[in-house]
Amino acid sequence: MPRIGKNNMCFRIKVNKSGELDEVKVAKHAIVCYKVVSKGPRAKKTAKSYIQDYRYTVGKTARAKFDVQGFNIEAGLHSYRNISSASWARVSRNKDLRIMLCVIPKGAQYYQNRTEYCSTQLTPVAFI
After folding, report:
1. Rounded CA gap, 29 and 110, in Å?
2. 5: in domain
C-alpha cells in the first residue's frame, strides 16, 4: 500500500476543548467530497494529484494508511468537503487543474477540518 503524501502533505488534526486530538472517524455511509487533480493521459478516466502525482482512476478506490505525527497527518488521501473549497483551491493554484467528484466509502477512516477530509480510502466518481 503506498504511503501517499509522505513528506509533502500535511493535514492538521483538530484539537478539542480539552486539548486532545480529535479521534479518527469511521464513515457510516459514503461521504461525497472533491479532489483537485491534474489532467491525466486519459482525461475521461484518469488523473494525477497535483502535489503527489498519485494516479486516480474513476471507479477505482485508492487506499492509504495514515501516518500521524503529532497534530499532523503526513500520509493519507486528501479531499475537499465542498465544491466551493475545491474550486478555490483549483483557481488559486492553476487553472489547468480539474475537479473530481469522489466518495469516501462506507467503513473508511477519516479526519475532517473546516474545509477538508483526510481519509484511508477515496473513490473517484466523475470529473466535474
Report:
1. 12
2. no
Distance, CA of 70 to CA of 42 (rounded, Å): 38
Q: Which three cell numbers stand for residue 40?
A: 491525466
Task: State if pTM tops 0.90.
Answer: no
Q: In this structure, is residue 62 part of a structural domain?
A: yes
Residue 115 sits in which domain range?
11-127
Can you give the pLDDT of all 128 residues of the chain as single tens digits? Answer: 444 444 445 676 666 677 667 788 999 999 999 998 886 655 568 888 877 778 899 999 999 998 877 777 777 899 999 998 888 766 656 667 888 999 999 999 999 988 899 999 999 999 88
